[in-house]
């Protein structure tokens, strides 16, 4: 994201600008949440790794395999929550990938049932129809949807009903004068309260929403960064509806995910591994060695660079976390490149703490925590043994 696309500061007179105090509060809470998520992602990566290791030691049909499946399923569910926490600390917005708006609406409804008091009913979204792909920062869009619901649900009287639904919308004009219409998806957040049914749409709007609530300003900025817009309306039955319109992603833009090539094997290639978390480092090194790679372990940045220099031209891959102790992983990569080390690199990171522009400049791919050892091995194999041009992936 360019500097000009940062959220606007200062004058509260423009409706698209967030209130500075609210933004600072958002950032402070977000940094705390992202820090907690970073620690949880390390733990989840360890759970994934040792679960896979335990499964590999058991014979087919062993009764403990079902328990391991349940452990991994619970870890997967927890990892979706940590992605949301990491996203809370992400300003400016992070890497935009393809996501399904219908799934986002389901996630928002599920989280709202946990957040809102029991006096407020949250409708269960039952998605129907094909996926609605958009490109965006999933955590930011989810937070925007949650914020819409929480702001519109005030005051939270007994009998208040909140619904979040996604659907295909009519084509809308893209930003810019004379821009063509583009297919779009929409997320509608609606709130109704007992007693509102008797008011006309216009009267309800004047009484309850004379102007856009301040709490929606930052949401409008997030939606705008995704090429979308926000529409607030009061229906005749008294229901307040806020609709987020987002352009559909063009076909063929889905991000590639490393295939689970559990059978991939190394040929003794030397990998320098830098990871501060002891257990994550142990499970990653064990998986790589079992797959046939030679691994040099380092718990911090200075030792990572020392190992890299010692191995010299033997190094085939640099594998290190972004938040490496004593010296950041990105800084270590800069130093390695300045010293003429050209081996490809894999940066291990959470969603919000990596400089993607830097990664693209230094022949680096990203592996996000929490990850399974099968994902790690597949990505290492893809980097070290890329398919021939025109060959099978």
Tags for this model:
alpha/beta; 2 domains; disordered N terminus; Rossmann fold; 393 residues; Heat Shock Protein 90
Gyration radius, in Å: 24 Å
Instruction: Quickly give the CATH architecture of the largest domain.
Output: 2-Layer Sandwich
Strand arrangement, largest sheet? 2-4-5-7-6
Strand percentage lies at 15-25%
Helix-strand category: alpha/beta
Distance linking N and C termini: 31 Å
- Helix share bin: 40-55%
Number of strands: 12
Number of helices: 11
Total discrete domains: 2
CATH class of the largest domain: Alpha Beta
Overall mean pLDDT stands at 75
Major sheet size, sense and barrel closure? 5 strands, mixed
Along the chain, the helix and strand elements come as HHEHEEHEEHHEEEHEHEHEHEH
CATH superfamily placement of the largest domain:
Histidine kinase-like ATPase, C-terminal domain
Summarize the structure.
The strands form 3 sheets. The protein has a 5-stranded mixed β-sheet. Strands 9-8-10-11-12 form a 5-stranded parallel β-sheet, with helices on both faces. A two-stranded antiparallel sheet has the order 1-3.
How would you sum up this structure, described in words?
- The protein is of the alpha/beta class and 393 residues long.
- The protein folds into two domains: 93-255, Heat Shock Protein 90, CATH 3.30.565; 270-384, Response regulator (Rossmann fold, 3-Layer(aba) Sandwich).
- Helix content is 41%, strand content 19%.
- Strands 2-4-5-7-6 form a five-stranded mixed β-sheet.
- Helix 1 packs antiparallel against helix 2 (64-88) and helix 3 (101-115) crosses helix 4 (138-152).
- The longest helix is centred in the first third of the chain and has 37 residues, at 20-56.
- The chain is elongated, with a radius of gyration of 24 Å.
- The two termini are 31 Å apart.
- Residues 1-22, 198-210 and 253-262 have low confidence and may be disordered.
């Amino acid at each position: 994201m360019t500097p000009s696309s940062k959220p606007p500061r200062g004058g509260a007179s423009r409706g698209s600008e967030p209130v500075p105090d609210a933004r600072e509060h958002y950032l402070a809470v977000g940094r705390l949440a992202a820090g907690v998520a970073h620690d949880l992602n390390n733990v989840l990566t360890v759970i994934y790794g040792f679960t896979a290791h335990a499964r590999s030691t058991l014979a087919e049909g062993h009764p403990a395999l079902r328990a391991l499946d349940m452990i991994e399923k619970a870890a997967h569910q927890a990892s979706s929550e940590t992605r949301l926490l990491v996203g809370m600390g992400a300003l400016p917005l992070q890497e935009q990938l393809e996501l399904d708006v219908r799934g986002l609406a389901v996630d928002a409804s599920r989280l709202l049932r946990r957040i809102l008091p029991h006096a407020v009913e949250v409708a269960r979204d039952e998605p129907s129809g094909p996926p609605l792909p958009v490109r965006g920062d999933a955590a930011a869009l989810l937070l925007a949807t949650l914020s819409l619901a929480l702001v519109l649900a005030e005051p939270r009287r007994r009998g208040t009903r909140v619904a979040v639904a996604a659907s295909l919308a009519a084509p809308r004009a893209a930003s810019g004068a004379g821009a063509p219409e583009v297919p779009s998806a929409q997320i509608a957040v609606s709130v109704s309260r007992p007693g509102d049914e008797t008011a006309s749409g216009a009267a309800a709007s004047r009484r309850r929403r004379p102007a856009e609530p301040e709490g929606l300003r930052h949401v409008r900025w997030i939606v705008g960064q995704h090429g979308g817009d926000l529409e607030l309306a009061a229906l005749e039955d008294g229901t307040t509806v806020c609709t987020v319109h987002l352009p559909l992603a063009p076909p063929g833009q889905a991000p590639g995910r490393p295939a689970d090539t559990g059978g991939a094997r190394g040929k003794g290639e030397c990998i320098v591994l830098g990871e501060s978390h002891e257990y994550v480092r142990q499970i990653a090194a064990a998986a790589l060695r079992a797959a046939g790679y030679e691994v040099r372990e380092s718990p911090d940045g200075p030792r990572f660079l020392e190992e890299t220099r010692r191995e010299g031209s033997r190094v085939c891959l640099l594998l290190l976390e972004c938040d490496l102790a004593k010296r950041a992983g990105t800084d270590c990569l800069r130093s390695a490149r300045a010293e003429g080390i050209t081996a490809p690199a894999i940066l291990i990171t959470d969603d919000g703490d990596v400089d993607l522009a830097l990664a693209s400049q230094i022949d680096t791919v990203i592996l996000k925590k929490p990850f399974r050892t099968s994902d790690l091995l597949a990505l290492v194999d893809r980097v070290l043994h890329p398919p021939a041009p025109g060959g099978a992936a």
